[in-house]
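The freezer alarm interrupted the setup, so I double-checked each line after restarting. Inputs confirmed:
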Amino acid sequence: MDFDLNQDQKMLAQTVADFAKNESPVERFRQLRDDDIGYSAAVWQKMGELGWLGVAFPESVGGFGGSFVECALVIENLAATLVPEPYLASVVLGGFALLRAGNAAQHAAYLTPMIEGETTLALAYSEAQSRHDVSAVETTAHVKGDGYALSGRKVWVLNGHHADHLIVSARAPGGVTLFVIPRDAEGVTVTVAKTIDGHKAAFIDFDGVVVDSDARLGDEGSGTAVLERVMDYAAAAAVAEGVGLASTMLHMTVDYLGTREQFGVKVGSFQALQHRAVDMYAETELLRAISMASMLRADEDERSVRVGDISSAKLQLATGGIWVAQQSLQLHGGIGVTDEHDIGLYFKRMYALNALFGDAEHHVARFASDTSFAEAG
Amino acid sequence: MNLTFTEEEEAFRQEVRDWIETAMPADMRERAQGSGGFTPEDSATWHRILYDKGWVAPNWPEEVGGTGWDAARRFIFEEEMELAGAPQLSVFGLTMVGPLIISFGTDEQKKRFLPKILSAEEFWCQGYSEPGAGSDLASLRTTAEDAGDHFIVNGQKTWTSYAQYADWVFCLVRTDPDVKKQAGITFLLIDLKTPGVEVKPMQTLGHTAAFCDTFFENVKVPKENVVGGVNQGWTMAKALLGHERTMLAMIGPCRNVLQKIKRIAATKTVNGRPMLEDPVWRAKIARLEMRFRAHLMVSYRALDDQQKGKMPGPESSILKLVGTKLIQELTELAMEVMGESALTWYNEGVCMPVEESIGPYFCYERAATIYGGSNEIQRNVIAKMILQLPSS
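Predicted 3D structure, all chains:
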């Protein structure tokens, strides 16, 4: 057992933390909130040059052959200042789906350029009726000539408003299948939707979009298994980001308690508030510890092993992470509910993460229905 | 980073498991599997079995009777003991005063006391709290007056758990009333057979006689029974507290109760099927097990630090806070799962034996958030020491 990061991982985490602090303070996110895209192509390219987009991908596709731990470290440290580039959407969702479902030619055409920071990806998997069930796909892929014609509607596609390529799940004759489609393909209609956390997503309509068979990723029917793996990566990524948010919120709150004066004393000297802050600390450390387990387990092939820690971690985000967010707002008092103060931006991001990749009920049910649950009795 | 125990560590786990299987007397095993209720005699019997094997004091250095295991092996050993439902050994000698004597005692004290703690010839209890000194321990008033080669001790200690079975008590006593209250305290070892000592057991909520009041009236205690020097008692108390921290994480007890909950839920039915197959009950149980996993990871981190010889990180300070709350939530859930059987109170043949153990244990663990420094005191300390919030 070893909870220490290796030398390379420590350096990566430090580099990302320095970048977030020095080159992308929260002010940068604020400026980009109202932008049509919401992030900067130049910064994305820089992330590619620094190698951050490829940390967890094999060298054969232009990555650095690391593990998911490196990916999670990047995400956790970018969260400290709410860096707006679509790392989770493009690297974890789009990138991992492509890596697991695609062949070498598809990797070269779509994955490598993303790793280099030239393009971004989005994963269009969710539908209005699917609620965390990646196999509940009503979008269809009918055989047409040598290829397929896709029709249906995808919702809340993260980075779907700007991604160069969309990875889309659709029901083909052989079952749920993934396809890669340029966002500007004929028959694709993108409707931009603003999200609570100041980002953008898209509702995307596919109206008989014609694609060649080489747009199909893997065999027909292979989509659900890939998406289930990707959802575990995404949940672990959300938890890692939650750790970054929670520890930043805790720091901000403790600082505030040590500065703000009322009744002639620092409010942090009040026992009621001290005890609350300690409980925030406890929930943050629980989240951090289980996040370490979940980022390690994400690469495990055995489902039971992944479910145990990743679902527990996502539950801790839904309970402890959300609670830290709530209390940090409460302890800031009136200033906490203004847009002017940063604490509320973190608060809203935590709620966004909670809503994505399975909520508490989803993960509790998943944990409880895993065979290892009853065996453990 | 990796989360796995090494092959050698897993082999050690199997060795411990196999040994417990054969070493535990049949009647004790039956109680472990069933009610889980043990008497102090059971505990003493198990203590002697472990002593004969050489495994009674894993946390002691090898040269004074420890096992020489590293932190991971000690952790695995504890886990396996709890998992098997083995009786808990009296902690006052093995975990508390023993390690303190090892660190701060004189050679004579080591020779006099340590072997008999190991062999279970002498049991210990703790004399800290007083009727007027609980969370504010430093305000204690039991006095030890200098009378040449000995002290004369007068006063009352309370919550001296299991004093009625103990031979010795380690006490905090006031030796100097004229200095800052923490500075006038001494750590003193007192033979309970000395004239003037009176022990009065009282019943707990769980109807075990765990607690006692212990009275001292002109009790003569030789000066060689001071540990760590006169007026150094507060430093000793703080050193001792460090030993308690990981013990109070409750990892073993939580696992044990989770198992019991599932055993009960697999047997009892709701809407015509086992509760463990009912989605609502499954989810309730799962939620606590998932929280336990997060708590387990915090304690694994502390273990990893220990294994590497580092001071435990600040996060280990939350282990007592989270662990004691969790064991209470788990025993509460066990009561809920039992339904009307939660009414049972020391019956035989009325409910399943495993159910009979729950009520008293549930009551017993209400103390967990109070002893070892109440959880409110823990929060005060963490707020000050770790979050560095301003004092009032």
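Quick read of the result. Chain A has a mean pLDDT of 97.
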